[in-house]
Request: fold
Amino acid sequence: MKLVMVVGVAMALGVAVPMVAQTKATQAKVQPAPQAPVAQAPAPEVKFPEVNSKNFTAASPTVDEVNGFLKAIWGFDVSRKWQVAAILKTPAAGIAKVVVLVGDERQPGKVSSTVFFTTPDGKHAISDTMINFGPKPFEEARKTLQAEATGAARGAKSNDLMLVEFADLQCESCKDAQDKVDNLAQDFPQARIVFENFPVTMHHPYALRAAEDGVCVRKEKGDAAFFSYVQAVYAKQAGLTAQSVDEALKAAETAAGADPAAVAACAAAPETKAAVEASLKLGEDVGVSQAPTLAVNGHLLSVASLPYETLKQIVAFQAQQDGITVHLQPTLTTLK
Reply:
């Protein structure tokens, strides 16, 4: 669901500190006077219009339920403020129209609105797409992924903080997103990072073959070799063409320590194709519609489009929501 995000820049205001005058006679003896503390202007507040009770005609959802949902998806950004302006009946039985005013403390003079609809069962919200609704909208997907995301993994052994990457090995955005995922692995040692194949064959004709070969590299050599294979495929991604795909994939398999002949025999087996299909189905079952997508304890994120610092904030916030203590450190690595 695309919800409006208001972005602004905060301006800090201060008062100049007066200088202490000294005569020649006292200059050598008088110690500099301590500087007065800089007075800070109070942060401007986002102002919303007064709520009109006539704009609340639907029995469900309640204002508290909407606020719980918005906290789950927006709470990572402490500068963002919102007000539930309306919860209205619609001609469709049980479907409510929710209007939310959104502001940002960094740009307090600007307020915009976002609209979504909730379904009669109280479990889904619809804007230009449909997502789960409620104060724990990602819990169902989290449980599904904890049970069924069995792809190659790195990081922690525990599934408490689980980052599941759905990626296409022929996708340039997936390749570019690897820097962010690698940095998350460093910044969140509590996280278990799982790779699930999500080849988009409509646009990438060799993504399925690359995924199947990857399944076989993992089967032969293990998870660490699989991630080496992924890195090598991304490095040779330009070679995934009709003329050079064989050479590119064999080189990636060799770089991962696997035997290309054994990989080819394994890739021809029906169970290999079934493994990739199961990974695709898992993504679709939890709402993945594009690659790359990163599921942070079930919270689906378009990882390629998010600045890394924002991505870090979301991971830390989601962990906190799920009762996991993380220590958010300054980013020491440099992203391309």
Observations:
- The beta strands are 80-89, 96-104, 111-118, 124-126, 130-132, 153-155, 162-167, 192-197, 293-296, 299-301.
- Residues 1-33 have pLDDT under 50 and may be disordered.
- The two ends are 28 Å apart (CA to CA).
